[in-house]
Amino acid sequence: MNASDLMALNSARRARKAVVQVTDLASGKSDLLLEGELVDGSLGEAVADRFRSGKSGVVEADSRSFFVNAYLPPVRIVVIGAVHISQVLANMSALAGFDIRIIDPRTAFATPERFAGVDLVADWPVDVLSDQPLDRYTALVAVTHDPKIDDYPIGQALRAGCFYVGALGSRKTHAARLERLKKAGLDDLELARIRAPIGLAIKAANPAEIAVAILAEIIQSLRTREHILPGRSEP
Fold it and tell me: H or E stretch including 149?
């Protein structure tokens, strides 16, 4: 990798942007591509697949051989709510290789004893997320059932283009949530991205099973996303 490509790669990593280096194995010519840049032909399909999987390797495209080296930001899961589901989800996420952060201003729930070894912040999401904003490689999981705590991070996740946005609650609860978020300036296309009821429909019956359903839905969303998700600035 030449010096200019290395600088561009390091810059993308600092900004948590996904990059692939595509090398023509016949000529040795390499190109560095950010996720979202258009690539024509079957090579474009192969590059998109590498962005989804995060795996590097040789691909055959357009009658040529290429080595595609994928550099994806570490996936983060941000959970709003230090509840029983979050306790199980924290352990499962670590096993699956995901970074996870739990945010909850309710100090009775957000205690080190309940979340030993977990990145736990006992503060309001509006304050926490201003220091570490959400991005396209973040999954947002809102499980407090409290609009005062959940609504703000859900709105921020949609604006940032998080690849997954899930919220706990019944259909009636979610309908009321949608009305509040509409009044906050979010449109129907953005709101349609919220996974609610949260998690894959496996008829989960307890916190551990709900955590399984949530993590499975996060992985499904990450590995099957079709393109870089739209983000937008605050209105």
Answer: helix 147-160
Domains of the chain, by residue range, sit at 3-71, 76-224
Q: Which helix (H) or strand (E) holds 214?
A: helix 207-224
- B/e letters for 138-172, b = 16+ CB within 10 Å, e = fewer, are bbbbbbbeebebbbbbbbbbbbbbbbbbbbbbeee
Q: 211 and 100 in contact (C-beta within 8 Å)? A: no
Task: For domain 76-224, give its CATH number from 1.10.10.60, 3.40.718.10, 3.40.630.30, 3.40.50.720.
Answer: 3.40.50.720
pTM for the model: 0.86
pLDDT digits (tens, 9 = 90+) for 89-143: 999 999 999 999 999 999 999 999 999 999 999 999 999 999 889 999 999 999 9
How many whole angstroms separate alpha carbon 115 and alpha carbon 88? 10
Cα–Cα distances (Å) from 106 to 76, 95, 103, 110, 164, in that order, read: 22, 27, 9, 6, 24
Lookup result for tokens 């609650």: 169
How is residue 140 written in tokens?
């947002």
Sheet holding 99-103, edge to edge: 119-121, 99-103, 76-80, 138-142, 164-167, 194-195
